[in-house]
From TrEMBL, chain B:
InterPro entries: AAA+_ATPase, ABC_AA/LPS_Transport, ABC_transporter-like_ATP-bd, ABC_transporter-like_CS, BCA_ABC_TP_C, P-loop_NTPase. It comes from Paenibacillus pasadenensis. The keyword Nucleotide-binding applies. One of its GO terms (cellular component) is plasma membrane. Pfam families: ABC_tran, BCA_ABC_TP_C. This is Branched-chain amino acid transport ATP-binding protein LivG. Residues 15-258 form the ABC transporter domain.
């Protein structure tokens, strides 16, 4: 700056305030405990990675693998909903693109690892292109246009997948072979765990980049963000493209574990799943989405088991509705958000002087 | 154009409006306003509630598009430019109704303004840690506004006066050439006014920026201003030195009288 800097002068600090909202505690905690976060995440990763060495419970592997995959999907949704404040009703279309891309590549060509990788990349590219298109068409308009347009496009892709039978075999779907090394449950489990870790790290980095920090500003106050000199639309499109590409990865992994793909990957249920997992886990944190995926998948498993006891448990949507209501009542900021605020109030009780009010 | 002004300033004005008008429905909130702002001067805009002062700012900063008329800034027609473009060209504003990022920390609110001024907009790979200097600059503004104690609090938890200070810190962070201040001391406690006043005075003392201030407090206006413009029912009633405005009969009868009536009603 060529100008003389404005000189700060000192003044006694205002007395600290005790009362603090949930959101306040959460963001304060996030600000200070990045190291704690890294340690916890690393520890969790090592523990989960070591699991195949100590257990060979088939059902546990299947459950956790599913959790990892849906966690990637939920995180991608969180990028839109939690970070940028964009609501999508058609997030399943990106999931489905990845799913069909992998399914088709592996069924039409040789089922090898490079082919799998190629299919994942192709799915991501398609998803990125489509989300770019949807974004360009709707993100300069009022926010509900994006919700509507994603809904429309997802519906369109669902119908296309049903009608284009020569390619997709319609709603019957088709099975396909997967690369030999992945036929081992434990290997597939590890691949999904590593993918989750990689996507988590990448998305966390993204949200903490200069561009990502503007996404949160847009969520908070679009007009103010613009008046600071940021052009809104490119940011929203960037969020949409990254979210679409990440969702596609989860779709690829999803069908890889099933060795089967049909039109349900494009269904509204998929989108609702992402929405539910993100909100239940806690928006705007990424790890909240992972927690949400774990809770939902575990509940799903539980209900499936209970269905043998009484057929009422087959109506899992009722129970998810109930779960949702309970979570919203007990954990108003999602599981991640509310637990974080408990933690920080516990910390404050332990150390009476408020560290947050002091300068580090 | 305004003859009193044209005579006094030889340098071209930094900002000029030409018959600027905006109508909501049939009602013109700003009507045919032609106003020139001298470069590196301090101009206050006064007028009763609902005179159109904030609306004029919205036109200048690009929040609103005029129904007719033109805005020239640094010799360039900016009438059609969106607000982010104007900010990048050096027009910064603070808002009358506090307008911050409620759930972001106070530091982050300011840091975002610093980042924008630095022109780092689409960097999606490097970590924010690589941009510590933004944070350092935001910290010094925090200190200046005496908000350091609130560094990590979400903006929503600030008291009203603190929010106003944050608003000003964000404006300062933009390092604008032209600062539009919309009632920066409105609704804050008396003991907090001097701090804000001092910051505005500091900016003025530096002499490198142009300041346009909307303010109701006449003693503050008279103390700070090189020039005063009076808006009344959307029209520019008068524009001149403080002395000229205070001695202006039209202003006295049509506006100052009306203003006090308004105040009595409210
Ligand atoms: N977006 C809008 N739509 C319709 N009318 C508006 C809009 N913005 C402002 N107005 C009207 O324009 C007039 C001028 O409002 P403005 O806020 O500019 O007044 P002001 O001079 O800033 O008043 P105050 O001193 O109370 O801040 C008011 O009658 C207001 O109701
Ligand atoms: Mg106003």
């Amino acid at each position: 700056m060529s100008r003389t800097p404005l000189q700060p002068r000192s003044e006694p600090a205002a007395p600290p305030k005790r009362a603090r909202s949930v959101m306040g505690r959460l963001s304060a905690l996030q600000g200070r405990s990045s190291r704690t976060h890294n340690v916890v995440v690393l520890l969790l990763f090592v523990l989960l990675a070591a699991l195949p060495a100590v257990s060979d419970s088939r059902s546990l592997f299947i459950l956790l693998t599913q959790v990892f995959i849906l966690a990637v999907f939920a995180m991608s949704y969180d990028l839109l909903l939690g970070f940028t404040g964009i609501v999508s009703f058609g997030h399943a279309m990106f999931f489905g693109l990845g799913a069909y891309s992998t399914g088709l590549f592996l069924s039409r060509f040789e089922a090898t690892l490079p082919m799998l990788l190629l299919s994942v990349i192709a799915g991501m590219a398609l998803a990125a292109a489509l989300s770019y298109l949807v974004g360009v068409l709707s993100l300069r308009l009022k926010s509900h246009f994006y919700a509507m347009l994603t809904l429309a496009f997802a519906g369109l892709l669902l119908v296309a997948a049903e009608k284009w039978r020569s390619l997709t075999k319609g709603s019957d779907g088709f099975t396909f072979a997967i690369p030999e090394p992945l036929k081992d449950r434990a290997t597939l489990y590890l691949v999904c765990l590593c993918t989750l870790a990689a996507v988590y790290v990448a998305l966390r980095r993204f949200t903490r980049s200069p561009l990502g920090s503007v996404l949160q500003a847009i969520r908070e106050n679009e007009q103010r963000t613009e008046s600071l000199g940021y052009r809104i639309v490119p940011y929203k499109i960037a969020a949409s493209v990254v979210a679409g590409a990440a969702a596609s990865i989860s779709g690829s992994l999803y069908v890889l574990t099933l060795r089967f793909v049909n039109t349900t990957v494009f269904s509204m249920d998929m989108t609702l799943n992402a929405l539910l997992m993100t909100i239940i886990g806690g928006v705007g944190t990424l790890y909240g989405a992972v927690i949400g995926a774990a809770v939902i998948e575990w509940a799903h498993q539980l209900l499936t088991d209970l269905a043998g006891v009484h057929p009422i448990f087959e109506r899992w949507i009722i129970f998810f509705g109930l779960l949702y209501i309970v979570v919203v009542l007990v954990f108003p900021s999602g599981i991640a958000g509310t637990c974080a605020s408990w933690l920080s109030s516990m910390r404050r009780r332990r150390q009476p002087e408020d560290p947050e009010e002091e300068r580090p | 154009m305004n003859s009193a002004k044209a005579a006094r300033s030889a340098a071209p004005p930094i900002l000029e409006t030409d018959r600027l008008t905006v109508a909501f429905g049939g009602h013109a909130a700003v009507r045919e306003v032609s106003l020139a702002v001298t470069d590196r001067s301090f101009l206050s805009i006064i007028g009763p509630n609902g005179a159109g002062k904030t609306t004029l700012f919205n036109l200048l900063s690009g929040q609103l598009k005029p129904t007719s008329g033109r805005i020239t800034y640094k010799g360039m027609d900016i009438t059609g430019l969106p607000s982010y473009e104007r900010t990048r060209r050096g027009i910064g504003r603070s808002f009358q109704l506090t307008h911050v990022f409620p759930r972001l920390s106070v530091l982050e609110n300011i840091r975002l303004a610093v980042q924008s001024r630095a022109g780092v907009r689409y960097d999606f790979f490097s970590s924010l840690r690589r941009h510590r200097k933004f944070e350092a600059e935001a910290e010094s503004l925090l200190e200046l506004m005496r908000l350091t104690g609130k560094r990590n609090s979400p903006a929503i938890q600030l008291a009203h006066g603190e929010k106003r200070k944050l608003e000003i810190a964000m404006l300062l962070a933009l390092d604008s050439d032209l600062l539009l201040l919309d009632e920066p001391t409105a609704g804050i406690s008396l003991e907090e006014v001097p701090a804000i006043l001092e910051v505005i005075r500091d900016v003025k003392r530096q002499g490198s920026r142009t300041i346009v201030l909307i303010e109701h407090k006449m003693e503050m206006v008279l103390d700070l201003s090189d020039e005063i413009a009076v808006l009344y029912q959307g029209e520019l009633l008068a524009h001149g030195t403080p002395a000229a405005i205070m001695g202006n009969e039209t202003v006295q009868s049509a506006y100052l009288g009306g203003w006090y009536d308004d105040a009595a009603e409210a």
